[in-house]
Structure formats: structure tokens, C-alpha cells
Amino acid sequence: MRRLFFMLVILFLFYLGIQFAFYWFSGGQDNVYEITDEGATFEVSEKSNFNLALNSYDYDVTIDDTTFSFKIFKNYNKASKVLEKIEYYTEEDTNFKCILPIFKDDEIFLDMMCYDGESYNYYFNIKGKNENLDKFVSSIEEYDINQFVDDAQKQIIEELNVLPENLVEHHYISFNNYRGVYIVSDSFNSRVYNISLFNKDVYKQELGQFVDRYYVIPDYSKEHEFNEIEVVDLVSLDTKTIGSDHMISFDSYIQGVVDNKVYLYDKDNAVQYEIDPSKETIVRLSSNEIKYYDGQWKTMTQAEANDEKKFITDKVDYVDEQYVRIDKSHDDFGYYYLYKKNGNKYDVYRMSTQDNKGLIYIFTTSSLNYIRYVEDYVYYIDGNQVKVYNDKFGVRRLIEYNELNFNKDFNFNVFATQW
């Protein structure tokens, strides 16, 4: 009897161990539950995703045949049902509905979402257009009205107007100027570093390239050809010079970046180069086979290379003709970004790559040339300003620099040291 008891205890502990292992190492779980707010009942579908990079939760919240879809990124230590409360606004005799999701510990990760019968909007984009909605939002105890307001003050640092309190932790914003490169980050005490690379203004820097944490650019003090390349580490601020045994013509172009290596084609000499800034190497590739990348490595003819056939590194599996551009973020963050022409500007929408749901307008920009996706942040240049979008605060200004309006040959990059 005693032996049987111990065997049962061991089997029970073994069962608990299996359950714990399944829970701890599982990639996520699905939950469906209800939340009631002053008579309104919401059906909540919660899909959690756990991995080494980040934890995220996907939600569909449905009321009266209207579904609000959204995603949050938060480590709740694998907890479920972390959406605990929903503030609800609706107008009688219309399809206008708004919800504000409030999570565990009264945290708010995105602004109130509104549906007008046709499209979805965040409250910060329609604030001031509906007096009754404004009054309702101001009455919500957990809602911080300043969370989605950009009232930061500018400071002049190294000829840039910078808004230091808006800078995102561990993010490094970089763009070239006529003599070098600017690097802006809250990780620097001075916030801005202006690294000088040339002793005179260089207006055309077509061979400069950002890759991972580096800025790679040839020695523009030479006139027709070069055999040295400057590599700037955007985090440590170190600058190193790497050399080639061969002279490279300035009549070259950047084909693309694959696996953090830059591929450059010298049209004058019909030679392709592979530049690895982390290993500080410049490798002259075979002139018999010119490499080409479009999701896999292929070869192309010299005529195609001379015609500046560039690598295709970003493929999108979602197509909709009403948008002039559709981008897909890193798979861990699971978003499509869709750009619709609106006069001389572009309205930007976003939706989840999971089931293509949750299309919502997020911001408008003047240009499609400089857009960078870092984690769940979108950095972009709008006129003479560098801005950033994130659900946690909406749109914020980061940098003002008049040259952004005039010089269309800028290189622009944002690098994050951790997710």
C-alpha cells in the first residue's frame, strides 16, 4: 500500500512536470472569453505567441457584429486573459463605435479604436472632431491624455533640431550629410554625433550604404576610382578604413544587401564586389558569374548588371491595387503596411499578417523614399522632419533638418541594439 502511494505521488509529479514543460516551452495558446462593460458584452479571441525574441498577443474583440483586431507586444510571463477591461463608446442610430482596451495592471498599449461603419481609426487621428467622444475619453480614469500627445521641446544640437524626450531607447537614427554622417540616439549623452569623413562637401554620395549597425562609404576624396572604404560603427562610433587590392570605379552602383553584406557592381571594369563591414573585408567576385538575388541566389548577364539590375530582398505576399506600395515587417512583428495616394501625400494603413485583419489608418507622410521598420516602430521622413509611429504613443517628431527637404540623395537608417 505504501509502495502504491509513493508510485502515485511520483506519477502525479511526473504529470505536473509534463504540464509545466508544455506550458513553459509552448509557442503560445488560444483563449476565447467575454468581457462585460456597463451592459455591453464583448467576445474576446486572444492568441498568444511566445518566443525567445518577444512575447505578443493578437486580439479580435467583437461586439454587435463589429470586430476590432489588434496586437500588443508585452511580456506577461505567459499569462493568458491579460485583456481585463474595455471602455466602450457608441452612438445611437449610427454604426459609430469605439473601444479602449485596458490590460493587466491598468496598462494601455494603444489608443481608443473607432469604427464609423466603413473604416477604422485611432482616437488621436480624429480627436476634436466629435465633442461627445472627446468628453467620454476625458472621463476614463485610466486614460492619460498626454500619452498620445506630442508636446516635446526642440533643442539645437550639431545644427539639428532634436526632440530628445521623443527618442526611443536603444534606437540609433542615422543619415548622411555632405561631409559625413549624423547619428542620433538617447544612448549618447550628447544625443547627436556628427562624424566627419571628408574634408570637403560631397553632394553626390550614391555609393554610401547602411547595413546592420554600420555605415559603409568609399573614399570620396578620390576623383575617378578608389580602393578604400570607410566603415562607421553607428553604436560604438568607431570608424575604420578597409582596403581592396583592386581599384574600383566611381561608375559603380549598390546592387543590394544580403546577410549584412553589401554587393557593389563596378560597371567600368565589369566586376562585382562583396563588402562585409563586420569582418572588414572587400572581396572581388568572379567576373564570369555575376550574382543576383531575389529570394535565392542566381546569376545575371553583364548587360543586365550594366543596366543596374538591383537585388530584390523584400517580397510581399499580399497584393491590393488600391495601394501604391505594400510592405511587410519582420515576421516576428506580423504587420503589413499599405500606402494609398492622397493628393501629393500618402495615407498609411496597417493590418496584421495573420488572416489579413485589422486594417487601420495610422498616419500620413509626404514621401515613400525613407521608411524604416524597426520592431513595431515605423520611422519615416515627412518634409524636413524625421518622425516615428508606434501604437504606444501615436506619431512623434524626432528631428528637424531643412536639408531633408532639398537633398534627395540622403541615406537614412534606424538600428536597434535589442528587441
How big is the Rg?
Answer: 26 Å
Q: pLDDT under 50 segments (min length 5)?
A: 15-26
How far apart the termini lie comes to 55 Å
The helix content is: 10-25%
Q: What class do helices, strands and sheet pairing give?
A: mainly beta
User: In what order do the strands lie side by side in the largest sheet?
Assistant: 9-10-31-30-29-28
Specify the biggest β-sheet: 6 strands, antiparallel
Strand share of the residues? over 45%
- Provide mean pLDDT, rounded: 91
Write down the overall geometry. Answer: elongated
Based on DSSP secondary structure assignment, what is the total number of beta strands?
A: 32
Task: Provide a count of the helices.
Answer: 5
Kindly describe this structure.
The radius of gyration is 26 Å and the shape is elongated. It contains five helices and 32 strands. Among the domains are: 2-148, no CATH class; 192-306, no CATH class. 28% of the residues are buried. It is 11% helix and 46% strand. By secondary structure, the chain is mainly β.
Short description:
This protein has 419 residues and is mostly beta strands. Among the domains are: 2-148, no CATH class; 192-306, no CATH class. Helices cover 11% and strands 46% of the residues.
Helix-strand layout with pairing:
Blueprint: H1 2-25, E1 30-37, E2 40-50, E3 55-63, E4 66-73, E5 83-90, E6 97-103, E7 113-115, E8 120-122, H2 123-126, H3 131-138, E9 155-157, E10 160-162, E11 171-177, E12 180-184, E13 192-196, E14 209-211, E15 214-218, E16 225-233, E17 239-249, E18 252-258, E19 261-266, E20 271-276, E21 281-284, E22 290-293, E23 297-300, H4 302-306, E24 325-328, E25 335-342, E26 345-352, E27 360-365, E28 371-374, E29 377-382, E30 385-390, E31 394-400, H5 403-406, E32 412-416
Antiparallel strand pairs: 1-2, 2-3, 3-4, 5-6, 6-7, 7-8, 9-10, 10-31, 11-12, 11-32, 12-13, 14-15, 15-16, 16-17, 18-19, 19-20, 20-21, 22-23, 24-25, 25-26, 26-27, 28-29, 29-30, 30-31
